[in-house]
Specification:
mainly alpha, elongated
Length: 86
Amino acid sequence: MNKRLLSAAMALVLALPLARPAPAMDGIAVRPASGANETAAPAITEKDDALSRVMWVVLVVWLGLGAYLFKIDRRIARLERKIDER
C-alpha cells in the first residue's frame, strides 16, 4: 500500500475517537427556580445521536467510494503502463 495512503488512514483511525462531541455541562449545577425536583435534560438527545450516526455512515460510504476509485485508478494506470511498454 502507498505510504501516504497508509499514513492518512492511520491518522483517520486515530482521530475517530476525538470526533465524538463532548457532553455539555448544561443542567449540572442548575436548579429549577420553582424548587421542584426536576431532572436535567440529557446533554445529547436521541435526535442528535441519530444524526451523528447517519453522518458517520455517510462518511464511511464516501471513504469507501474514494478507496474504490483510487484502486480502480491504480489498476488502469498499471494497464496503461503495460500498453505503453509494448
